[in-house]
Every structure is written in structure tokens, then in C-alpha cells.
Specification:
alpha+beta, Penicillin-binding protein 2a (Domain 2), 2 domains, PCN-bd_Tpept, penicillin binding, transmembrane helix, hydrolase
Length: about 675
Amino acid sequence: MSSEPSIFFSDVNERQGSFLRRTFVVGGLTALGVVALTGRLTQLQVVQAQDYATLAKENQFNFRLVLPPRGLIKDRNGVVIAGNRPSFRVLIVRDETNDLDQTLDLLGQLMPDTVERRRAIIRDVNAAARFSPVPVKSDLTWDEFAKVNLYAPELPGVMADMNDARFYPFGGAFAHVIGYVAKPNDRDIAAIRERDEEVPQILYNPGFRIGRQGVEKALDTRLRGVEGGNRVEVDARGRVVAEDIGGSRPAVPGDEVILTLDADVQNRALEVFGEEAGGAVLMDVRNGDILCMVSAPSFDPNLFVSGVPSRTYRALADYERRPLLDKALTGTFAPGSTFKPVVGLAALRRGANPERRIVCTGGFYLGRRFACHATHGVQTLRDAIKNSCNVYFMTLAVEMGPDAIAVAARELGFGQTYDLGVGGQKAGLVPDTQWRRDNPVRGDSKWYPGETPSYGIGQGALTVNALQLAVYTSRLANGRKAVMPRLIKSIGGVEQPPAAAVTDLPFDAAAFKVVQEGMEAVTDVGGTGFRNSQLGLGPVRMAGKTGTAQSRNYGSGSRKGAGRPWAQKDHNLFIAYAPIDNPRYAVAVIIQHGGMGGGTAGAPRAREIMRVALLKDPEIRARIEQSGFVETEDPGAHDVAEVTPLPASVAPAEATSPPPASSDLPQ
């Protein structure tokens, strides 16, 4: 028979002592736990009660950034040329979305075009700050907007609202001078950091836009405004149930910018360019205000606001006539015969007699023959400007040398950039002997006499842009002051003066009078610009100067434009001012590869641009009406269409190679 195992204590007192020690240990630990718990609860509920109440309230409310309305840009008459329009859009808040992929799948069924942008949307959502709404699609149709709201219960974290989108009502008319807005990119952020500046948090908001090119870029910080925020109450699923008005702050709109441009003149300028490429600038000769600064062909900046499709951008970038390039500021061309008044003024300052007679036999000889476009016979300075005689100005140029010409050219506005408040200008090139020493050809730093005849007729290494031509023409018309151009009239209601002081022109009034009389004769009967420069405004007439500049070396071949590809044709230029007896406006037009004859393509377009400016001027219009003149149809209005060739091919506007040393350019 087996027995059960058992434990025996030899002493009853030993058993009782062991039990009591265990009781005290367990009891002590329990008491310490209760004291600690009581202390912690007291701290949370009494000492830190207010702190946790605040945190709980912040959990209940989210602060959502409100983008500020971008400042308006207006023309001189208050017409909005860059504004904001209402736009329906759909957004996603990452922190309120349970499953981003599933949400995008559902959105793709409602708006199929978002499927193509899925990767970009995910990238933007992941890069956005917490609780920051990320635009998925803008410019929703009413049907799309209604669908999103209808299926809202099945789309947590998705919302549809109405916001302000940048809008350019005149499309391409102001595209180059105004620029456009686009999303900030990594390069923008890096550029700010390189300047050791703090990156504004608003730049990380996917719906924010910054200025690109033109005024939008130059005045971006003034146009942005100051962001605001809405403090909204959300439920457990992240849905907005209320807004805390007291905790929200309104956004502050950006500053309003008023330009000196005139929308009517600008629109007409782009219209008359048609399919041609080039630039045009019209200025007030009294104060330098720019009423028109257009580049053609242009593009619609509205395409870039929401992100231009890559195919569309590639089509614009690859088009031979380069619509994305600003040919008014960055396109540099040889001025051709529009430069001849510079040579005349330089010679008169050195004591030349304007009545001196130089015989044109159809060519100028200096080691070889430099051709003229006609045999003009005996010419005075006035005659030579009227007939655009190459031989006359080649003779003066060789007698003076390049340095005297260069000094006069710079004084009249060439070889420099102007502080318009926008960037992107190219200074062009006014060559002289020092320039040649600094830029030797194959190690040869000598300026040779054979280079000077071409310089005297506005070719060779000489290059200018349309703005410089307009400044130069304004100074010719003014005859007293070195007028400085101004583009920005006011910012935030504060008038903006010209960037530089206006100085006196270092030429005698008598010298200007001779040149002006020659330019008046250009648009008179027998002048090179007569046919296409008639304004048809009664007593109000226009003075001008034609110009043609070779774009390539033709060798011994014919330079006639007929049958040649567009890129092989000459550049066509025209400068003018009006009225003749009391100049008020000056215009410069460059038609890239416009063909031979400076009056054929440039003059009719300059005429149409000038007509709009003159007819909008109350004083000049009153003068026309008082004269009894009755306006019927634009004179030569059909000429613009007749001289507008169909597009063919083109070379980049800013890449103009130096033409050959001789020319028989018809002017």
C-alpha cells in the first residue's frame, strides 16, 4: 500500500514567519502601485488638465491653408490683362483618406482623365504637408463637380470646391511681356536656399503657383499676397463638420500692378503679325512709356497654369518660328538701314556738311566693290536717308571709322539693357576697335577697313533688339532728351518712376532736324517707305526709316525671296514716329525673315500699330476731326494680308549670324 508524499515542517513558528514576510512584500507593492496611480491621475486630471484639454481640442480641429488671390495686372486704362477666375476643382487630403489607391480608383471611374496622371497625383499627395488638400484636377465641368459631390460619402478625404485660377483674357497678346504662372519645382526651392533664404511654406502647397517669365516672375513676391487659413472641425472620419470662424484668418490678396501697355494697341500688334515672326515696340516719345511690346508668333499662357501637356509643350518648343522666345527683348538682329541715321548724326557731330554731295554709281569701292541696291546719283544727307543710299553712308563710315559710330550708337540707345522691371533682355552688340581687340578672329585682333562699310549700313557684327530700336526712334523723334523706357506704371498704388534719369542728347538740334527731314521724306512720295506708311489720318502723318538685313551669306547667288525657304530670307525692319510736326509715338517693327525691301513687311504693320495709338489719343483724334477729315477704311489695310507669307521654316530669333561684308539690300 503506497503512501502520499507530504511536507513536514519541524517548527510551527518557522511556517508562520514565512507567510508573514510574503504578505508584507505583496501588500507593500500593491500600496505603492495605488499611490503611483493616484498621483498620476491627480497630475493628469488636476495639474495638466488644461494642457490636455487644448491638445484634445487641436485633435478635433484642423488648420487648412488658404491660398491668397494673386494680384491683378492691368493695362494703362485699367483693363485686366492677368486676373483670376473661379474654377471648380477636386482635392485629396492624405491624412483623411483610408486607402489612397482605392480612392484614386474610384476617382478614375468618375474622371477617366485622372488615370493618366495617377503617378503625378500620388507624388504630389505624398509630398504635401499634413492635412494639406492636394488638387487632383482643376477646371471641372459642372457634371464632374456634381458627380464628386454625389459620391462624396464613398470618397473619404476627397472634396470638391471652387478656387481662384490665374487667367489671361487676351491669350497670346501679352504672353511674353506678362509671362505666366506654374507650380514651383525643385529648382525654385534650391535657388531660394542658395541665396541663404528661408523657403516659404506656401511653396510646398500643391495648389500654389509662382511667376514664370515677364512681369509675373519679376514681381512674383509682390503679386503673391499673404496666405490665410481656415480652422475646421472634423469628425472621427476626418470629415469637416464646422468651421471655427474665430480661429481662421483671411488671405491677403497680392498687390495690383498697372503697366504702361495699352491692350488695344497690343492686341492689334499681334493681330497684324499674322503668321510672321518678329517683335514690335511702341513708345511715347515724351516720357518713355511703352504702349506695346509684342513678340510673334505667341502662345496661350493659360495652357501653363494647370500644367501644359508635354505634347503641347513639345509642339511649341519645336515649331521653327519659336513662339516661346521673346523676340522683342531677346531676339537680336542686324538693324540694316534703320541704323543709317546713327551714322549721319555721328558725321554731323564731327563737322560734316549735310549738303555735301556724294555721287552714288551703284557701288562703293574699298579693295573690292560693295554694292548699293540702286544707282542714286548725287545725294545729300537728306536724300541718302530718303533713298537709303548705301554708298553715301559707307563713305561717311569709312571716313569716321568704327569708334565714332559706336559712340553715337550707344548714346542713341543701342548696346545696352534697360531696367524695365523684367529680365530676359539681350544687349545686342555695338562693335568697335576695342571690341575687336577683346574678340580676335583666329588670333587677329585688328579691325580692318573692309569691315567698316558694312558697319555703316547697319550690318557686320552689329545686332540690336526691337526695344532698342524703339528707344532709338523715340530719341530721334524727341531730338532733345535721351528718353528712357518704362513698362511698370504702379505697384500696389505707388507710382513707379523711370529707372534712370533722363539726360540731354549730345547732338545739336540742327543735326536732328536734318535727320528728321530725311525720315519724313522716306514716307513721302518717292521715299522707300511711301506706299505702306500712309496712315490715312488727314493731317497726321508718319516719318520713318526702312531697313533690310541679311540673315546669311548668299555668296554669288540671288537674294530674292521668291522660292527660297523662309529661314533663308532677309529680315525686314521699319522704324517710325508720328505725328511728324509734333512727335508723340515711336514704333519699331522687326519681321524675322520678312523678305527683301524694308517697306514691304515692316512698314504696313508699323502703320496699323501706330494708327491705333494715334486714334486712341484724345488730342490727336480731336485734331483729326477738326481738320474735317472723314475716316473711311484703313488705307492699305489689305496690304498686311498681302505681304503675310505662309509659315515655312525659321532659325532661332536670338541666334543671328553676322551677315557678309557687302550688301545690295533694297530698302
